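Tokens in:
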């Protein structure tokens, strides 16, 4: 009888362990699939790696696109991104600090110091152009350390602080300017709203200027190739959350919001960037 009881206990133990293991597996699988537990972020890589929140990445894309539109090198965008990260955490904030109470915007520019009106410095396009206007007047800025170039524009009370953002500035500028292909990936939850290709084109035009584009259903077809094509594509990825973008294709590669597996091989006509937005959620 004792031996039979021992076997029963062993069987119960094995069954219990199996149930626990099954429960753990199910819980892990659920957690991996759960949309609410996804940490939304954008990662740039290539000669280093850095992460930004999605709103920061969208502002980084705008700042870099303005540099591309002006024909400036990626180095200019690197300096601008490091500067904005130090001044405002790459957010368009509407307040200053004790040292600069009238400072505003992405670069904390001061109307009292000639950067524009309070309304203008809160306009990201004006603020970015104003920064580059000052940067290109710095002799040899491309060969300067980022912290030195930034300081000559900003005249900060903490000139060494810009250096800590050098890697972030470099890798995001390289990806968003199209110099590093497939250098930007954003991990996002599924979109709750339908997208609009017209809004994507509007944002694209504001950032880069007029680039030929047409619409095919929920997809915007943009005529761009090479570095410009990758700049447009990775701008779209950086703005995927705000614009409900679900897929981007360029140069034989594709980014998909749902699969979250980075840039993969994809069929897309040469010289074209395809940006697809979410359909209306099912009711």
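Residues out:
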């Amino acid at each position: 009888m004792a031996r039979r009881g021992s076997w029963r206990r062993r069987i119960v133990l094995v069954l219990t362990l199996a149930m626990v293991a099954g429960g753990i597996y199910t819980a892990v699988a659920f957690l991996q699939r759960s949309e609410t537990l996804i940490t939304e972020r954008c990662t740039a890589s290539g000669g280093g790696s850095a992460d930004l929140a999605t709103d920061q990445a969208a502002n980084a894309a705008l700042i870099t696109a303005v540099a591309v539109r002006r024909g400036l090198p990626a180095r200019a965008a690197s300096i601008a991104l490091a500067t904005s990260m130090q001044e405002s955490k790459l957010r368009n904030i509407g307040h200053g600090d004790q040292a600069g109470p009238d400072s505003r915007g992405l670069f904390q520019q001061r109307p009292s110091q000639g950067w524009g009106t309070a309304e203008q410095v809160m306009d990201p396009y004006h603020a970015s152009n104003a920064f580059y206007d000052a940067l290109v007047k710095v002799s040899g800025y491309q060969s300067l350390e980022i912290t030195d170039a930034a300081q000559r524009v900003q005249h900060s009370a903490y000139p060494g602080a810009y250096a800590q953002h050098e890697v972030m500035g470099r890798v995001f500028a390289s990806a968003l300017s199209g110099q590093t292909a497939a250098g930007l990936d954003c991990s996002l939850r599924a979109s709750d709203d339908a997208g609009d290709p017209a809004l994507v084109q509007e944002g694209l035009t504001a950032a880069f200027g007029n680039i030929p584009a047409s619409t095919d259903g929920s997809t915007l077809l943009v005529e761009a190739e090479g570095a410009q094509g990758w700049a447009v594509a990775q701008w779209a990825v950086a703005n995927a959350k705000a614009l409900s973008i679900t897929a981007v294709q360029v140069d034989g590669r594709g980014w998909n919001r749902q699969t979250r597996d980075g840039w993969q091989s994809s069929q897309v006509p040469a010289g074209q960037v395809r940006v697809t937005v979410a359909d209306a959620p099912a009711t």
